[in-house]
Write a structure and sequence with these properties.
single chain, alpha+beta, seven-stranded mixed beta sheet, 23 strands, binds glycyl-adenosine-5'-phosphate
């Protein structure tokens, strides 16, 4: 993980928040390549759950919601973690369920641990100028509730009937007791969530299907299958709303950890919101008039955790011609930049020619133009940000309008007509791909 953190800083992917003031723990800012990488992760998610399906619609609900939402959803009462505080020297706080069972001493200083108390993870704030009880609102701890409260709106306009889903990407906030491992667990993060509404009798089948689909999404984008596992929750681990959940776990540097949860929420949320709002939250079959409260299957992924997993899984070091090379072997569709156009030397008309090729190429795919430093140094920089293709303009280009196309992973160099470049790379972007680390 230290290597990933260092690479993220060195190449401007991710920075500690408010660094000039000493930094804020567990809050991170995304720099240029980090923004591009994470938005590609989200774009691939949208492609797979929305664009390539007929049974999904999109939503973007607000972060602030009516406070009754959180009473109905059970979060005010039940969204807690067991907190134990060290009574010894360090006074550190721990999540009891992250300590070995029965541990009564502080892992840091050996001091005695106080009795566990339930700690609510929701961040509280106020609307309006007076911070009194009536103005309390919460920063949403999951995007899901925005979907449930809009169920009727969507049903009215989407022309869908169960089974169908509502997909949403957005920020969520949790006042986590322990934060750790870079962007793995932070106070503020982005979720990519689907609430998939199904006839009650089909819930188990859809739960199973979504587990397979979501595992496939990660492997299609290059995560090694032996670094992924599905782990069903034990009864004592289930969230207050869930009757069954399985986590997709990834083998992060700190061990197997949750990447995405796929829960069967039953009719818990719609029933609760119907009770608290007085509105009917059900599907009425227009043909038969039959009514049902659909059950919900919820694949809920973290955009930041997925970004971290893609970086960890693709990170590689190797020796090439006696020099160490660090390379992010990202799936080309995830790579922040798809191609770098580099003149071999900074003279003989090569920079101008390279610039013209770059300007043509960037209309079709995200590309970079770089003239700074030796060609080796420029390649190393592109390798570290995961650029799959290097396009070199050399003396031959000036004669026959061909360029060298360098493959990031095999290091193979081929010659191609400059005019064919964009079509060739667009084609390659959509070919099936598997991690060269598997070979
Ligand atoms: N609506 C269901 C739900 O929120 P969750 O398992 O608590 O379920 C879903 O969260 C996903 O959100 C997790 O699998 C993880 O990827 C991400 N996530 C949760 N808490 C996070 C945190 N503090 N920092 C970063 N990502 C987090």
């Amino acid at each position: 993980m230290d290597k990933i953190v260092a690479l993220c800083k060195r190449r401007g992917f991710i920075f500690q928040s408010s660094e000039i003031y000493g930094g804020m723990a567990s809050v991170y800012d995304y720099g240029h390549y980090g923004v591009l990488l994470k938005s590609n992760v989200k774009a691939e998610w949208w492609r797979s759950v929305l664009q390539e399906r007929d049974d999904m619609v999109a939503l973007d609900a607000a972060i602030l919601m009516h406070p009754r939402t959180w009473e109905a959803s059970g979060h005010l009462e039940g969204f807690t973690d067991p907190l134990v505080q060290c009574l010894g020297e360090c006074k550190k706080r721990w999540r009891e369920d992250h300590l070995p069972p029965g541990q009564r001493t502080c892992p840091e200083c050996g001091g005695e641990l106080a009795e566990a108390r339930q700690f609510n993870l929701m961040f509280e704030t106020h609307v309006g100028p007076v911070a009194d009880e009536g103005s309390v609102v919460y920063l949403r701890p999951e995007t899901a509730q925005g979907v449930f409260v809009n169920f009727k709106n969507v049903l009215q306009f989407a022309r869908k009937r169960p089974p169908f889903g509502i997909a949403q990407v957005g920020k969520a906030f949790r006042n986590e007791i322990t934060t750790q491992s870079f962007i793995f667990r932070t106070y503020e993060f982005e979720q990519m969530e689907i609430e998939f509404f199904v006839p009650p009798a089909e819930a188990d089948t859809w739960h199973q299907r979504w587990m397979e689909d979501r595992m496939g999404w990660y492997t299609d984008l290059g995560i090694r299958a032996d670094h992924l596992q599905l782990r069903p929750h034990g009864v004592d681990e289930l969230s207050h709303y869930s009757s069954a959940t399985s986590d997709i776990e990834y083998l992060f540097p700190m061990g197997w950890s949750e990447l995405e949860g796929i829960a069967n929420r039953g009719d818990f949320d719609l029933t609760q919101h119907a009770k608290y709002s007085g509105e009917k939250m059900e599907f009425v079959d227009p043909g038969t008039g039959d009514r049902c409260v659909p059950h919900v299957i919820e694949p809920s992924a973290g955009a930041d955790r997925a970004t971290l997993a893609f970086m960890v899984d693709s990170y590689d070091e190797e020796e090439v011609e006696g020099r160490e090379r660090v390379v992010l072997r990202l799936h080309p569709r995830l790579a922040p930049v798809k191609a770098a156009v580099l003149p071999l030397v900074n003279k003989d008309g090569q920079p101008e020619k390279a610039r013209a090729i770059y300007e043509e190429l960037r209309r079709r795919i995200p590309a970079e133009f770089d003239t700074g430093g030796s060609i080796g140094k420029r390649y190393r920089r592109q390798d570290e940000i995961g650029t799959p293709w290097g396009v070199t303009v050399d003396h031959q280009t000036m004669e026959d309008d061909t360029v060298t196309l360098r493959d990031r992973d095999s290091l193979e160099q081929t010659r191609i007509a400059a005019g064919d470049l964009a079509a060739e790379l667009e084609e390659r972007l959509h070919q099936p791909w598997s991690s060269p680390k598997l070979a």
